[in-house]
Write a structure and sequence with these properties.
The protein has about 90 residues and is mostly helical. The chain is built from two helices and no strands. α1 packs antiparallel against α2.
């Protein structure tokens, strides 16, 4: 037996392009914050605040926006799975 989903009878595959985008939206902040060597410096300053601090604070806002996008995409994906087209 094959582990691949059977799409001939209307079953939708588990991994879709929309779900990949959702995963990337949620994964990007982790990569940005775990790659410390990319932002472990004091320059450039922003209003006297070293780069190390304002970069992390900027990612708080970016993470919020990406989480909102992921949530909206998830809602669209779930509607599409339940009732056909999401539009």
């Amino acid at each position: 037996m094959s582990d691949a989903p059977d799409t001939t009878q209307g079953n939708q595959p588990t991994i879709t392009p929309m779900r990949v985008v959702i995963a990337l939206c949620l994964f990007a902040p982790f990569v940005a914050m775990l790659w410390v060597s990319s932002y472990a410096k004091a320059e450039p300053l922003l209003a006297g605040i070293p780069f190390f601090y304002w970069y992390q604070m900027l990612w708080v806002l970016i993470s919020t926006a990406l989480t909102m996008v992921a949530y909206k995409l998830w809602q669209i994906d779930q509607r599409a799975r339940k009732g056909g087209d999401a539009r």
